[in-house]
Amino acid sequence: MKISKKIIKSLGKLIAGDTGVAPYMSGPELVDFYNEYGFDDEYGQGFPSRWVYSTEKISDSNDSINLQKILEDFVDPRRFIGTNKNVEGVVDEVNKLIKIDGYTLITDGELYKITSTHGNFIQEESLTVIGHEFIKEQVEKCQQKIRSEDYNGAITNARTLIEAILIHIIESIHKTEVKNDGNLLNLYSRAKKALKIDFRKDEIPDSAFQVLSGLDSIVNGLSGFSNNAGDRHANKFNTKRHHAKLVVNSAMTACDFLVDVLNEKK
């Protein structure tokens, strides 16, 4: 997640509690809060002003997945228990600052998650640490769309997740940048060859071939389904909740397997 320098100071003051909207955090509390995201600071003599310290941490976290985590944890409703501050008001203030850069906080059950207002729910920097936890986070975002009855959006996100995994596999093995032309089947074919799981029927037992063929069917089906039902295209299919769940769960299964194979090779 990357934001413009113009709003970093405002976010630093907001998190420190200097604006009166969010709960006040003392110097030691700020140190404890930011140390959760990889910093190793100590509060003591020479410690800068609270808002200055907070601003420095936001600046240091900019253009990384840490900034997303900081903002999401900052508006965790559990932090507001026992205070006279309203989490919804804080979310509104954060959104006012980050919306111009293309981000917004949305509800995810009882919590809040950062999403892109440009339609891409996957942050680019996440691809460098892609793995099972990444897949879980992205599937949770798909499920949030299902809960909000945005079934076509969930299908589009599931396709984007698979595209991200396939691109990461190809780039990790071949050490080359992949330009995504939107051809999911081409990406899948390249990823299978890179992973060396592009077997012919006579090369492996029938049962293993059938299982791997099922993986092929998932990707092929998702490619066609997202073209017809995804919100990137005119909706040619009356997408229901169970359709969206099937697509999202199938995408998770495929991605989980592919990441396992990649990790095994590494």
UniProtKB/TrEMBL annotation:
Q: Which residues form the Abortive infection protein-like C-terminal domain?
A: 186-260
InterPro entries (alphabetical) = Abi-like_C
Species this chain originates from: Chryseobacterium antibioticum
Q: What is the official name of this protein in its record? A: Abortive infection family protein
